Amino acid sequence: MSTENTHPATSSEPTTTTGSSVIDETPLSVQARRQSIEKHLQTRPDPKDLKDRNILLNTNAAPSLQSTALDLERQLHADNLKKGLGKRPEREELVERNILPLSTAAPALQGQQRKLERHMRADSLEQGLKQRPKPEDLVREGILMEGDDPTSPVEK
Predict the structure, then answer these.
(1) The dihedral formed by the CA atoms of 103, 109, 112 and 117, expressed in degrees to the nearest 10
(2) CA 149 to the chain's CA centroid
(3) Cα separation of 146 and 136, whole Å?
(4) Which of 10, 39, 56, 118 has the most CB atoms at less than 10 Å from its CB?
């Protein structure tokens, strides 16, 4: 950072050059400084907004105790998380209860694997239905009675 006059022949006001920007460092009058501060205070966010945005700590503790309170709160969350993970059922139990699929495929591929299994099951059922004997063959073999309709529901 260098301090130099932008136009030495025309200006005697000190300026600071930082990279490509020029900062005017001329002293302000007391009235101008007061107006500037009042303007900034009017646009200043209130403490509730700062607490909502996690800029200010939302606590009633003394400032010297706030960091300790925050550390204790984090430790409490970590302990609760460890306790919850300790109660978590093992993978084998979740597979037995049909919560997780019995698959050794990568998680990104398991959706495709399920889709493939579903299509294979549908093809197998379709093939079985094609090979099913016709009602006339079942009547001839004595499995169905004459006039029985295999497509209607069975009445008891």
Answers:
(1) -20
(2) 56
(3) 9
(4) 56
Q: How far apart are CA 17 and CA 4, in angstroms?
A: 7
Phi and psi at residue 16, to the nearest 5°: -120, 135
Strands (E), the chain: 2-4, 15-18, 21-24
Distances (CA, A) of 67 to 19, 46, 58, 73: 38, 22, 12, 10
CA 22 to chain centre: 43
pTM (2 d.p.): 0.37
| DSSP code, position 52 | H
Give the whole-angstrom CA distance, residue 94 versus residue 97: 5
In what order do the strands lie in the sheet containing 15-18? Answer: 2-4, 15-18, 21-24
> In angstroms, rounded to a whole number, what is the distance separating the alpha carbons of residues 152 and 135?
12
Tens of pLDDT, residue by residue over 75-101, are: 999 999 999 999 999 989 999 998 988
